[in-house]
Automatic annotation (TrEMBL):
Residues 80-163 form the Core-binding (CB) domain. The keyword DNA-binding applies. GO terms for molecular function: DNA binding. Pfam families: Phage_int_SAM_4, Phage_integrase. Belongs to the 'phage' integrase family. This is Tyrosine-type recombinase/integrase. PROSITE patterns: CB, TYR_RECOMBINASE.
Length: 361
């Protein structure tokens, strides 16, 4: 074929995209416009489709009769290149309103699963096939228990939700959940992070995440209209599990936010990046890590440790566990109870035997 279409991955306006390049052809342009949500980029001088909207199988059907589709060399060696997600898989994830993070994780892990069975019909695989696949990953990749469960869930989602088969159609072995405890910072360490941060935007961000026990994505998606200063509440919209909840707005946090608003005048999102877009996850992580370094903390500090610290400090000052559960947005009290193992509320009541021994020597 004389016509060639080159596909490659790129980003545009903070979106993952598929770049479509070819020598000008009216036929290709017309088919692109008629069959896909393709757009022309003046800056990149090419056509593109958002990665989430790109259906490679359909793309091949539309263009394989008139042009040769060329993929990047490194991708051609990858078995999963041609193994796109089943059309209903991504649609179902979006329809049931899974978070962007979950959709990304499930999609990646299911594509890995597809690439391992390129010569077999997925609908005919047995539980033994799937268990052997998971076992192979454990042995080769030494993946964590959490990742193992995520991979299993991604596979089960296809058979149970997309195909509509009975629950537990495949008796996939589940690992025992690791009983690891969350790391927390002391109140003094939190204060040091906030006080050592001079940028009012960054200072307000750290104070808000900590004082409200927010997940990083909740800070990213928070809009100005969600802050109700008259009632001293903040509405968290579509948190984990797509559940709304209210959290307490601390007076000291409100004062910081007012100074920040005066200086930056955000339009829609509480914390905005370039072009008034929501602050990125990476930017928030960098803000928190930089604050910890300035405060001289030697621990590994990340945004979620502020949430763990919020819950632990509340427990230590006697706040009822039920309120903490509600503020954190936990569906089960068992999830919140993990902080009882981290809190020093009861530990400090008791004298360690060695103190008595050393005092007597």
């Amino acid at each position: 074929m004389s016509l060639k279409i080159h596909l490659s991955a790129d980003t545009h306006s903070n979106k993952e995209i598929v770049v479509i390049q070819f020598d000008y052809s009216t036929e290709i342009v017309n088919r692109l416009k008629q069959n896909f949500p393709a757009r022309w980029s003046q800056t990149k001088n090419c056509w593109w489709i958002a990665r989430k909207d790109f259906d490679y199988r359909k793309f091949k059907e539309v263009f394989s009769t008139i042009a040769e589709i060329i993929l990047p060399p490194q991708k051609q060696k990858d078995k999963s290149t041609d193994q796109l997600l089943p059309a209903d898989y991504l649609e179902k994830l979006i329809r049931v309103r899974y978070s962007e993070s979950t959709i990304k994780t499930y999609s990646k892990y299911f594509k890995d699963f597809q690439s391992a069975f390129t010569d077999q019909n997925l609908d005919e695989l047995t539980s033994t096939d799937i268990n052997n696949y998971i076992l192979g990953l454990i042995e080769k990749q030494k993946m964590s228990v959490s990742q193992q469960n995520q991979r299993i869930n991604a596979i089960k989602f296809y058979y149970e939700k997309v195909l509509g088969r009975e629950k537990l159609y495949f008796a996939v072995d589940r690992p025992k959940k690791e009983k690891s405890l969350p790391n927390v910072l002391s109140k003094n360490e939190i204060a040091a992070m906030i006080n050592s941060t001079n940028n009012i935007k960054h200072k307000s961000l750290i104070a808000l995440i900590y004082s409200c026990g927010l997940r990083r994505c909740e800070a990213i998606n928070m809009e100005l209209k969600d802050i109700d200063s008259s009632r001293m509440l903040i509405k968290i919209r579509a948190g984990k599990g797509n559940k709304d909840r209210y959290v307490q707005l601390a007076n000291s946090t409100l004062l910081l936010l007012r100074v920040y608003y005066k200086n930056y005048s955000p339009l829609k999102w509480v914390f905005e990046g370039p072009n008034n877009k929501p602050y990125s996850a990476k930017s928030i992580s960098n803000v928190v890590k930089t604050a910890a370094q300035r405060a001289g903390l030697k621990k590994r500090v990340h945004p979620h440790i502020l949430r763990h610290s919020f819950a632990t400090h509340h427990l230590e000052q006697g706040t009822d566990l039920r309120y903490i559960q509600e503020w954190l947005g936990h569906g089960s009290s068992k999830t919140t109870e993990i902080y009882t193992h981290v809190s020093n509320k009861d530990f400090i009541k008791f004298k360690n035997p060695i103190d008595g021994l050393l005092e007597d020597t």
